C-alpha cells in the first residue's frame, strides 16, 4: 500500500497504523435480578486518529453502554474492543471521559485543583501540573475562575472545566456522553462551537454520544446510528464538512438520520430529538 493522503495528518501516527479504536461485533448486557439482559446486540465501527465520531440513537439504545465499554468500565459479552492494537483495555488516561452531569467535578477542589489533580496522579510534578492545567483552562476561557469552587460556577462553566480536565492529560481519545444535554440551548450552542475549536487545536480524537440529530451533524465527521432493542449499528453516515445549517448536504444528512431514527418508531416531534 502506498502512503495515503486521504486523511489530515493525525496527531498519533498515520492512517497506515490502523484505526485508533476498533469496536468489532460487540455485544454487551447487564445482570438484572440474576438474569442477563442484553443491551447492545451487535456494534461494529472503527475510529481513525483525529476523527470526530458521533454515537446517535434514542434513549436506551446503548450509547452510554458502548462508551463505558470503550472506557474499559464494562466488559463486552461478545466481540472485541481494541484500542491502538490492545485488546480489551483497562481504564486509563488515554481515554478521558466527560459526562452530562454537572457534579463530575471534585466539589472540595478549586477549578485549578480539579484540572491539575489528574496530572499529579499520572506523575507530573507540581509546577508542570499547574502550568498545564492553566494552559487548558485558558483555552476554555476560564482564566478568571481558577480559584473558584464548582458550586460557584454555572452549568456551562462546570462543563468547560470538565473538558479542560479531560484534555489536560493529553488523551488519545476524548469520550463525551451527552456533555451538553443538560444545558440551555444558547449555552449548548456556544459550547459546541468551543469544542470544535479545541478539538481542532489539540487534534484529539473525539467520540461523542448524543441523541440530537443536529448536534451529531454539526460536530461529527461520521455518525454511528444505533437502534433496536437490544441495539445494533443501523448505519454509519458521513457528515464531514457539514458545520452549519447552510452547508450543502446538511439538510440531506439530517433527513437521512431522521429516517433512520424513525424506523425505531421514535416520536421525532417529542422532546427526545431536536
Ligand atoms: P443510552 O445511553 O443510549 O440511553 P444505555 O446504554 O444507558 O442507553 O442503556 C441501554 C440499555 O441498558 C437500557 O435498556 C438500560 O435500561 C440498560 N442499562 C443501562 N445501564 C444499566 C445497568 N447499570 N443495569 C441494568 N441495565 C442497564
Ligand atoms: Mg446514555
Backbone CA Rg: 19 Å
Give the second-level CATH assignment, the architecture of the largest domain: 3-Layer(aba) Sandwich
CATH fold node name of the largest domain: Rossmann fold
- The total beta strand count reads 10
Q: What structural category arises from helix and sheet content? A: alpha/beta
How many helix segments? Answer: 7
Main sheet: strands, sense, barrel: 10 strands, mixed
Helix content: 25-40%
Portion in beta strands = 15-25%
Distance between the termini: 43 Å
Give the uncertain stretches in residue-range form.
1-10, 268-274
Q: CATH superfamily membership of the largest domain, which one?
A: P-loop containing nucleotide triphosphate hydrolases
Describe the structure.
It contains seven helices and ten strands. With 274 residues, it is α/β, with parallel strands linked by helices. The protein has two domains: 1-94 and 172-266, Rossmann fold (3-Layer(aba) Sandwich), CATH 3.40.50; 107-170, no CATH class. It has a ten-stranded mixed β-sheet with strand order 5-4-1-2-10-9-3-8-7-6, sandwiched between helices. A hairpin with a 2-residue loop joins strand 1 and strand 2. Helix 2 (111-121) crosses helix 3. The longest helix has 18 residues, at 185-202. The protein is globular and about 50 Å long. It starts with 20 loop residues before the first strand and ends in a 12-residue tail after the last helix. Bound molecules: adenosine-5'-diphosphate and magnesium ion.
